Amino acid sequence: MDKRCPFALDTTGRDIHAEADVLRAQGSAVQVELPGGIVAWSINSHAAIRRVLTDPNVTKSARNHWPAFINGEIPPDWEMISWVAMDNMVTAYGKDHVRLRRLVGKAFTPRRTEAIRPRIVQLTEELLDGLAAAGPGEVVDLRERFAYPLPARLVADLIGMSEDARAKTAKVIDMMVDTTVTPEQAQAVLQGWRGAMAELIAAKRREPGEDITSDLIAARDEDGSRLSEQELTDTIFAILGAGSETTINFFDNAITALLRHPEQLELVRSGAATWDDVIDEVLRVESPLAHLPLRYAVEDIEFDDVTIPKGDPILVNYSAVGRDPALHGAGADRFDVLRSDKEHLSFGYGPHYCLGASVARLVAKIGLSSLFERFPDLSLAVAAEDLQPLPTFIMNGHRALPVRLTAAVAVGAAH
User: Fold this and answer.
1) Does the domain made of 7-404 have the CATH classification 1.10.630.10?
2) Which residues of 139-157 are buried (b: 16+ CB within 10 A; e: fewer)?
3) Which family does it belong to (predicted)?
C-alpha cells in the first residue's frame, strides 16, 4: 500500500481542474485528506472510475461498510457529516438500494418526464420575462436569476414543496456542498434539512398532492416495511439536492462556456451542432460534480499500482473523468461541441446512474435554447478568469455569473 503523505484537497475549490490533473498524474487511486483530517482515496482516471462505479465491492453505505463511522470515530459535527449520515437510495446497499430505487424510479418514467415539459417552459418564460425587465446595460447575476431558480423551482414542484420552504431549504443545501464550513455549521446543516423535510412530509400527510413526496408517503403507509421514516425523509432530500444543485451548476458552466467560446455558440445557431451536443460537451469538460463523497471498499480493491484496503472511504473525481487524456487525447480539456466522442460520467454509471437524467436533459435543452434565443447578444460582464469558483471541492460552479443581456427578442420559450 502506498504510504505517501495524503494530498490535501483544496477546500476552497480555487482550481478543481488543475487539482484533478495533479491527482491523475499521481495515479488512478490516490490518498487525499478531507476536512477534519479524514483520509480517503480519490479515484482519478476514467477507466478506474468506471470500474469503481460498477464494482459490487464498492458501496455508498457508511453504516454498513465504514468502520470509522460504525465505531463512532466520526464525530456528529464532522464537516461532511450530511454526506454520510443519510439513509436513502443514494447511500443504501444491496436489496435496500434496489427497493428504494424502484420506488423513486416511478416518478421518472418517460411518460412522466414528458408531462413535465409544459411546467419547464412556463418557468423558463417567467424567468426570462423577469430578466427582460433589466435596464439597458445593467449587469445581472445570471446564476442567481436563471441558473439557480429554474431547476430549483422545478424540483420543488416535483416533490410538492412550496416556494417559501424551498427558499429556506436552499440555504441549507448551499452550505452542505460548501467544504469550508465549520463543525458547528455542519451540524446545523444536518439538523436543518432533516427538519425541513419532516415539515414537508407532515404537510403532505395532511393534504396529499400529485407529487413525489405524496407518492412515497403512500408507499410507506401502505406497508411500513417498504420505506422507513428516515428513508422517506432522506430520500426526498436527496431528490431535492441532487436534482437542483447539479443542474444549477450545469447551467452556470454551459452559459460560461458558450460566452467564452462564441464560435461554438455560432455552430449551434448555424445548425452545424445541436443543443444536445452542447449539453454532452459541457457535462464532459465541466462536470457539475467535482469530487463526490463518499463510497467505501467492501473488500480490498486492487489497482495496478495500489490497493485500497477494506473499509476505506473513496471519492469519485468526476472533474477528472471527461478531461482524461487516456480517453479524449491531448485536447481533452478543450471545449468542442463538434467533438465526435463526448463520453462522460456526469450522470454516474452503473447501479447509481441518475434517475432524473432525462428530466435534467429536458430542462437543460429548453433552458439554454430559450435563453440564447431571447438574448442573442448575451455577454459576460467580467473577464472569464475573474469569475469566482464556489467554495467547495464537491461542486463545480461559480459564486456568481455577471452578464449583460442587451436587448431581448420578444419571442416565447422554445419547445
Assistant:
1) yes
2) ebbbbebbbbbbbbbbbbb
3) Belongs to the cytochrome P450 family.
